[in-house]
Amino acid sequence: MDKKSVVVEELGRAGPYSHSVIANSMIFLSGQLGVKENSDNSFEQQFRRAASNVEKILAQSNSSMKNIVRVVVYMKNQGDFELMNKLFKEVFSIATPARTTVVCNFPNDKALIELEVTAVTQ
């Protein structure tokens, strides 16, 4: 099996992991947060930043948003579900991926949303 790890230096890392791993024709992304210090950390802004990170990682992995097949959305507050659906439709409409949504807590108290993506190569 062919396997390649991808790290996007501009995104930094919070631990010893790859931003994505390409295995054969599948791309598995590590979960992406949208928290940014000294910035608007509203749910919408975190969602958009996390999605932007996903786009950068996919580009570095020789793929794109249209090749996403599955997204797992982790949310801190169930009350953000309607807004998440609106943003998800806007950001991921090109791919119409399968989706799972989980309400949970995060190690980073400021985190409201995390996106975990699986895609295919181009």
From TrEMBL:
Q: What family does this chain come from, according to its entry?
A: Belongs to the RutC family.
Q: Which SUPFAM superfamilies match?
A: YjgF-like
List the Gene Ontology MF annotations in alphabetical order. Answer: deaminase activity
Name of the molecule in the record:
Endoribonuclease L-PSP
**Organism, per UniProt?**
Cuniculiplasma divulgatum
List GO terms (cellular component aspect): cytosol
